[in-house]
Amino acid sequence: MRRRAPVALSATSVLVALVFATPLAYLISRVAVGDVRMSSVVSDDRVQDALWRTIVLASLVAASAAVIGTALAWLVARSDVPYRRVFAVLVPLPLVFPSFVGALALRASVSPGGLLESVLGPFGVDRLPQIDGLFGSWLVLTLFTYPYVQLPVAARLRALGPSIEESARMLGRRPLAVFFQVVLPQARTAIAAGTLLVFLYAVSDFGAVDLLGYPALTRVIYANRVLRRDLAMALGLVLAIVALIVTIAERRVGRNAAVAQGLRTKHSLTVSLGRWRWPVFGLAVFFLLNAIVAPVASLVHWTRRGITSGSLEVGDADLWTPVLNTAGISMVTALVAVVVVLPLAFLATRYRSRVAGPALTMVVAGFALPGIVIALSMVFLSLNTPVLDAFYQTFPLLVLAYVVHFGAQSVRAASVAVGSVPGRLDDAARMLGAQRWRRLLRIDAPLMAPGLAAGGGLVLLSTMKELPATLLLAPTGFETLATRIWSATEENALAEAGLAALVLLVVSGLLTWVLVVRRAELLD
Length: 524
Fold this sequence. Notes:
Elements: E1 3-4, H1 7-33, H2 38-43, H3 45-78, H4 84-90, H5 99-110, H6 115-120, H7 133-145, H8 147-159, H9 163-170, H10 175-186, H11 188-204, H12 207-211, H13 217-223, H14 229-255, H15 277-309, H16 320-350, E2 351-352, H17 356-368, H18 371-384, H19 395-406, H20 408-419, H21 423-431, H22 436-465, H23 468-473, H24 481-490, H25 494-523
Parallel strand pairs: 1-2
């Protein structure tokens, strides 16, 4: 039976939860006392149009990512497609692409002198249609967010023993019927969780929709952040409400889902594709060419053009400073996020407490809030609070915004890490007279280190790709790879933007391999 939580741990957890709730609380209070009435904002036709376009885009992206992610997860976890292990490594790699880098690659590929023009030029094609607006935004966001569905669904399929499917086969069900009637219902919670992440990502996206000219609500918020601050805050609250409603709805659906616990074996069930084996292989290769190879090829094309024409000198690009800034702020954020959520993980895993549930909900709500909304709240809170105004455009405020937005990604890993430490070890050390801090450092910390590193790695990877919070909160003169790419794109310096994007992809790709793909292989 769990012990009652120490007062100090409960108080620390409440303090952490209040910090995560601060942006939303300030947003609500600012709108309540501001000059712009929420009713007038909601009833404005232009706001309704922007909100509707945002919901349409997010819904389309979430639906397509759910279908593609589930199909690819089943392909690498259940089918006999050729080179399945290679696909298992390649399929999650689009995670390394920030959405605005994908949009940059797409726009650059169809620009005059771009990759498609050089490929299709010999065939008489000298003019290409621009891919932008709803279609372009949907395409980019789908290509680079489907791994949020694929990864949890693949993990669920690996954990689902073959006995359930084999029983359905013995009862005369065809493979397709087994998939829709047995496999899909058992993976429903994983599909819903991944689809929620994709929806929240699409709702809060700013870089891709701005580069591709899609009039989503985030563009309206960013455009009004200086001259019409109250309107920007009210629009941010509208976006936050949408994200929170969808998050709550998904959690209610997931809570009511019944999941069977099949007996897991070392080798999961493999379904033969028969005559469709090679056509499916070709289709998967074609998709990955568009999701991985084509964007990289477009960026390489513009970088090479800049070097050969003399407009880009690699030695003069001075990317070391943005690389070091990106790595430094990301590692600090990851470390702070793990330390901040660790008390909550202990409280929820080891003790009886009424505080744990609400506190964890506030932390998860921080991830549901769009990054641009959190950044705006931090900006206006620091500017309008006498004590906090000294922190405006400083590193502590930037790190705080990152932690509030991405801290939820480390909560689950921290909870699993805390739960992996056998309680009998802690009890034995306590009986031998070891104090709490000594037990934490000598027993808990070494055993929890791998899980905490994985959770911190997810935060680190997300921080490297974050754009809106960095644009609004970074200290003057502080440049990351994301902001370097953004500024070069605004100046139409595609060669410089392409080089910086390639560097960001290499760094984040290595992190994705170490923290996501390799970890999944070790757990398989």
